[in-house]
Amino acid sequence: MSSHKTQSNQSQDTKNARKPQRSFAQQREQLAVDLVQAIDQQVMGGKLSAATASTGGVHLIWSSKLRTAAGKAHWNRVKQPMGDDLNQHHLKIELSPKLITSEDKLRNTLAHELCHCALWVIDLDPKSHHGKQFKIWSKAQVIQRPSLTGQELSNY
Fold first, then answer.
1. Exposed site from 17, 51, 99, 150, fewest CB < 10 Å?
2. How many CB atoms lie within 10 A of CB 69?
């Protein structure tokens, strides 16, 4: 028996190896929405969705322009009419389709970016980046979602 593969067998193996990635690409939008909702509810007590309700929730954008970062969060406060005490916020998270190629990478990237969102919206601290409060949010996520580790959250 020959131990080498024919050209057609190699081609078939390559196609099979790409199937999980294609499958992820087809499911990534819904996975991302589900992960944001789960993290917000489990870790942030639904505060992000409440604070972004009037602006359509946390917007997720898959951007091919992101080539060196897996994700990037953007925030601005929405000015309310006089007398309205409820602050509303606009949150957008850009995600790199080139760098986020698996559910694990998506989960870790979203967890990291949502820590930034929590700093801005819940803690009202737009100047803080990866300091003490960021690490507190990271720890809260690790406690609620054991599949994450604090180190992973810091590296994204």
1. 17
2. 13
Distance in angstroms (rounded) separating the CA atoms of residues 125 and 119 = 5
Q: Convert the pLDDT of each residue in 101-144 to its tens digit.
A: 999 999 999 999 999 999 999 999 988 888 999 999 988 988 88
Confidence of residue 155 (pLDDT cuts 50, 70, 90): low
| Token duo for residue 30 | 């819904």
Buried b (16+ CB within 10 A) or exposed e, 75-105: beeeeeeeeeeeebbbbbbbbbeeebbeeeb
Residue 5: band (very low, low, confident or very high) from pLDDT cuts 50, 70, 90: very low
Neighbour tally for 116: CB within 10 Å: 22
**In which residue are the tokens 């505060």 written?**
47
**49-69 tens-digit pLDDT:** 999 998 999 999 999 999 999
Classify residue 6 by burial, with Cβ atoms within 10 Å: 0-12, 13-18, 19+: exposed
The DSSP code for 59 is E
Read off the pLDDT of each residue in 77-90 and give the average, rounded to a whole number. Answer: 72
Tokens for 94, please give them: 């850009």
- The amino acid at residue 37 is Q
- Contacts (Cβ under 8 Å, ≥6 apart) of 64: 96, 97, 98
